[in-house]
Amino acid sequence: MRLVGWLAGLCWMAMAMIVPFYVLVVYAIVGSGVAVDAVRRSMNWHAVWRAIVACGLAAIPAAYAFYVFSTSPIFAVWSSQNQVLSPHPLHYLLAYALVGGLALVSLRRAWQRGDPMWRRLVSWTLFIPPLLYLPFNAQRRLIESWPIPVSILASVTLVRVVLPAFRRWRFVHRLTRSPRYTSGGLQRWALSGILLLTTPTFGLLLVDQTARVITRQWPIFHAGDEVAAIDWLSKRVTYADVVLCAYATGNYLPARTSARVFVGHGPETIHLAEKLPLVAQFYAPETDDAWRQAFLGEWGIDWVVAGPFERELGTVDLSGKSYLQLLYDAGGYQIYRVSESASQ
To answer: What are the residues whose beta carbons fall under 8 Å from the beta carbon of 130, sequence distance 6 or more?
Structure first.
């Protein structure tokens, strides 16, 4: 049985290497289970030692990540910009109203069962919600595992409470008198209806994304001229190159090239709030050329893109600038190479 602790620990290590803060969820689940056993005076010390081994292994990559994010100024800024906070509790209540309501019905019955696994399932269900409002920048991510225990308890309610009540319903009895209907068939229709009620989010996502594609909205849709311009650039840049463009262009450009962009991603563009005004100033027609040239040199910009998103920032004509060499002009996109004198 000792092997179980090591295997669990290795799995949690792999998880922590991908998303270190999920260790908080693991610790909450394991800790709540131990607390429940302690309260009921049914402590299994072999299980406790297995949990200690597994949690210790998971702590290794988590501790390293904490050290990096605490000491690296770049990761510290990234973390401060990566705000994934929980919404108002009412949003969670509405989102989990049906499944959560079904789960609540089985909470007491699961707690009263003699099997400790059911009590741990209940503790898992109850201990996760408080984590969602910890003073932590990725609060909303901590709910990732919660649908597992909630769905299990909801399924128990569905099988042991809802379906038996459905079969006893007078309306169902009347329908089964007809040869066209059977109790099993009506039960399957009831299950299908309940499942459909739990999936409106997926339907909304499908409708929303389909509408964005049909109406050609960014960032789902990218015009062929944009793709052609970026693909042309991808053949001429390396990872050492930095491209100046609007945020919308920069959000897509790294996906098709090896170059870096000055702005292009919310959390991952360091000091985004300070950089966005500089981009707008560069493309503004009233900006002085001396400022533009100094800006390109200060930030080590190698390429400049002028397309539809950049023209939304300003209608400046860059074609006659001595510090820029026009190398691509097609489909409403111009790509300039910054001269060596400007980049120094």
So the answer is: none
Helix (H, G, I), strand (E, B) or coil at 85: coil
What pLDDT sits at residue 89? Answer: 92
- DSSP letters, 257-287, are SS-EESS--TTTSTTHHHHHHHHHHHH-TTS
Q: CA-based angle 296:78:295, to the nearest 5?
A: 10
* In contact, 6 and 51? CB cutoff 8 Å: no
Q: For residue 288, give the amino acid letter.
A: D
- Per-residue pLDDT, averaged over 26-44, amounts to 77
Query: How far is Cα 33 from Cα 119, in angstroms, rounded to an integer?
Result: 8
161: left (phi over 0), alpha (psi -120 to 50) or beta: alpha
Cβ burial, residue 153 (10 Å; 0-12/13-18/19+): buried
Distances (CA, A) of 75 to 13, 18, 264: 21, 15, 17
Prediction pTM value:
0.74
Instruction: For residue 184, give every residue at least 6 positions away whose Cβ sits within 8 Å of its Cβ, in sequence order, or none.
Output: none
Q: Who has greater pLDDT, 269 or 175?
A: 269
pLDDT (tens digit, 9 = 90+) per residue, 281-309? Answer: 999 999 999 999 999 999 999 999 999 99
Sheet with 324-330: strands ordered across: 260-261, 242-244, 303-306, 333-338, 324-330
Q: Where are the domains of the chain?
A: 1-82, 83-121+128-198, 224-343
Asked whether the beta carbons of 324 and 339 are under 8 A apart, the reply is yes
Q: What is the DSSP letter of 236?
A: T
Cα 325 vs. chain centroid, distance in angstroms? 40
At residue 317, what is the residue type? D
CA distance linking residue 5 with residue 256, whole number of Å: 43
Three-state SS at 335? strand
Cβ pair 326, 266 in contact under 8 A: no
CATH annotation of 224-343: 3.40.50
- Please check whether residue 222 is in contact with residue 282, taking contact to mean a CB–CB distance below 8 angstroms: no
Question: Is the Cα dihedral 39, 125, 119, 116 positive or negative?
Answer: negative
